[in-house]
Design a protein that fits this description.
8-stranded parallel barrel; disordered N terminus; TIM Barrel; 411 residues; binds pyridoxal-5'-phosphate; 8-stranded mixed β-sheet; Lyase, Ornithine Decarboxylase, Chain A, domain 1; single chain; 25% strand; 2 domains
Length: 411
């Protein structure tokens, strides 16, 4: 077996001209001037479009693609995704409003998440979006709200299956969980839907996130479809859709390889074909966040100082942990590893030195990159964190130390 490469892998190669990073063909320095100040996040709209197209090329035609907007809820990004996908998944009332603002039809929006508040459920029913119900209490509340508003609530049941998605960065099933209703209780919940006069809109089985193993996703998809077939048989009811989750990951760290989505798509086709009769006329939904937007995003900060300490070079930039928590290693990682970080205006230069790049916070946790090989840097250079389109801006503690928040642009 060949050893994985020690470098960072991306699906899309970096574009550059004269050693300067291009973001959707705009040179980085010119983009920084246009934005007006650093730090900022930039998202490449051509890369977003290309990613969806690439995925469509390998998925079975019958699969509907949904964008889980919590990965990147910037309204301009959501608006860009609107015509590219069949639906949106939202995780809060605010995300629901952003999704509706984009013009996505309400019946193509679903709302998942534990501890949904009664006001959120009421808003979802009023809006006509589908609620992915995560508890029996929620089910009763939806019945009551539906009667109160005289609006038929659209309800899908989120199932906590007995299996897990192996090798996920974050597991969300297969053991006691705050997510979904345990599979053994689902037939009774489906029956209760009927008693409450609610439609059985869908089944939702989401097992995990940030997975790079095609084998694991293929197996989870197979188990998901088998479980759905079994639950439908037990309940003697058929939903309008089956949401099979997603969890497709992107490579962040040295040695990681891009997910083989062609293998996942081919196996999913086989699985759906094997259950063609049971799955007939049921919409199959794949919901993805990170995979659609992660690689299209860049976090850009400017070098303000460079200093030596005991033989070590520190490059100080105007952004860091408070803007990009995941890059600092403090968003779920056990051992900190470097994201792919480049000096965006020196891509051609030989990496003849080693530097640590740090932000302005008064804590050693504020590391942008730890001892990376780099070209000799200069003050004013633009440091770029790649793979930053998902769980960046909104997953970071902007208020910590009271620096201004970063800007965001769609390029
Ligand atoms: C967060 C979430 C997603 C998106 O996960 P990614 O790993 O970003 O693709 C999809 N579905 C549900 C229910 C989620 O909570």
């Amino acid at each position: 077996m060949s050893k994985p490469p020690a470098t960072h892998a991306r699906l899309q190669a970096l574009a550059a001209r004269d050693g300067e990073l291009l973001i959707n063909d705009v040179p980085l320095g010119r983009l920084a001037a246009r934005v007006g100040r650093t730090p900022f996040y930039a998202y490449d709209r051509a890369a977003l479009t290309a990613r969806v197209k690439q995925l469509r090329g390998v998925l079975p035609e019958r699969v509907s693609l949904h964008y889980a907007i919590k990965a990147n809820p910037m309204p301009a990004v959501v608006a860009h995704m609107r015509p590219l996908v069949e639906g949106f998944d939202v995780a809060s009332h605010r995300e629901m409003l952003v999704a509706l603002d984009s013009g996505m039809p309400a019946h193509e929006i679903s709302f998942a998440g534990p501890a949904k508040q009664e006001s959120e459920l009421r808003a979802a029913v009023a809006a006509g979006i589908c609620v992915n119900c995560e508890s029996e209490t929620e089910l009763e509340r939806l019945g009551a709200i539906s009667r109160e508003l005289a609006v038929p609530a659209r309800v899908a049941l989120r199932v906590n299956p007995s299996f897990e998605l192996k090798g996920s960065g974050m597991k969300m099933s297969g053991s006691p969980r705050q997510f979904g209703i345990d599979a053994v209780r689902v037939p009774a919940a489906i029956a209760r839907l009927g008693e409450l006069g609610l439609d059985f809109d869908g089944l939702h089985i989401f097992c995990g996130s940030q997975n790079l193993s095609a084998d694991s996703i293929v197996e989870a998809n197979r188990l998901t479809v088998e479980l759905a077939v079994e639950l439908m048989a037990q309940a003697q009811r058929r939903p309008r859709f089956l949401n099979i989750g997603g969890g497709y990951g992107i490579p962040y760290f040295p040695g990681e390889r891009p997910l083989d989505v062609a293998a996942v798509g081919a196996a999913l086709r086989t699985t759906l074909d094997a259950h063609a009769a049971a799955m007939e006329s049921i919409e199959i939904v794949l919901e993805l966040g990170r995979y659609l937007v992660g690689e299209a995003g860049y976090y850009v900060a400017r070098v303000s100082d460079i200093k030596e300490s005991q033989g070590h070079t520190f490059v100080m930039v105007d952004g860091g942990l408070h803007h990009h928590l995941a890059n600092s290693g403090n968003f779920g990682q056990v051992l900190r590893k470097n994201y792919p970080v480049v000096i965006g205006n020196r891509l051609d230069a030989a990496k003849t030195t080693q530097v640590s790049i740090v932000g302005p916070l008064c804590t050693p946790l504020d590391l942008v990159a730890d001892r990376i090989d780099a070209p000799p840097p200069g003050i004013g250079d633009l440091v770029v964190v790649l793979q930053s389109g998902a769980y960046g801006y909104t997953a970071s503690p902007h208020l910590f130390l009271s620096h201004p928040p970063p800007l965001e642009v769609l390029v």
